[in-house]
TrEMBL record:
Residues 104-173 form a coiled coil. Residues 30-49, 187-212, 254-365 are annotated as: Disordered. Keywords: Coiled coil, Plasmid. The keyword Phosphoprotein does not apply. Residues 254-269, 303-318 have a biased composition (Low complexity). Residues 190-212, 270-285, 335-355 have a biased composition (Basic and acidic residues). This is Uncharacterized protein.
Amino acid sequence: MTMETSGTAQEAVTRPCGYSRCDRRISYSGSGRPPRYCQPERRWPDQGGKTCKQLAAEERAAGRAAELEAVTAAYAATEDPVLAAIQALTAVLADRHAAGEAVLEAVGGRVAEAERAAAEAQAARQAAEDGRASADRAAAAARRDAELAAEARRVAERRARDAEADARDQTSQAWARVVEAERAAAAAGERAEGAQRAEAHALADRDTARDRAAELAENNKELRAETKQLRAETADATAAAARALTELAAAQARADAAEQRAATAGEAAAADRARAEAERAERLAADAAAAADRAARQDAEQRAATAETAAAAAQARADAAEQRAETADAAAAADRARAERAEQRAETERAERLAADAQRPPETT
């Protein structure tokens, strides 16, 4: 298709050279007067180096010279019949011309009338087409308005549904927050009550610990006095035991001497007395040792009681410190519970406001 179009365009812009013997075609760019001969000029060496234009002029001159005489003779021979025929034809043509003029006038009138009717019909058709176009435009505008109204209605319905769904969601969330806030408030109240009960228990335990500490302090005073007395008795018992031991040693020495004398002198009575003194000294020593043991045990028991009292006092002080710490913790817990209740109340109020806002109908635009 493209090659045929190119070939047609090539044939349309080329033409043969004006010299009959030249087989070249002349290209024409489409602007200016088209050339009739080869450009650039072609020269023929066998014709004396003449151009196509010169050789074509010579051909025309030779043709005119060869045909002029024959044409002149033929023209002279046909001049009279041609003139007669021309005259007859002129008369016929004059009549024909008159009849044609009449026909033209009649046709012109009918043509003018037909043209007027056609113009009127064209105007009526144009008016009808304009009216139909206006009606079409009005109908299209009405359809567009109806489509826009339907789309606006659908958008409004969708927005109303979305607003209703959002309102339901917000209401559900608000009630959920209210329930959660009430649950948290109840838990905070329970924690506050527990903190108050713990504080009351801590105060009661503190009072008990104070009473116990006072009682232990009084017992400690009594134990200190008893310990002092026991220490004095222990010292006396220790001194008596020491004296008994000294006397025992002396009696033992006298008994040994008496036995030695009895053994040598046969003094049985002296030996009996010595043995009696030795036995009495042993009993005194045993009593002194028992008294010393009792004093040592009482001292140990007294020290144990004193240590126990000190431990009880330390425990009481520790319990009092722990009770103070628990009281402080309970107070802090009560403060946190009060803060949580205040926060829960604020959250509940905010949830109620959100619920009220969600229950209001959405604004329509």
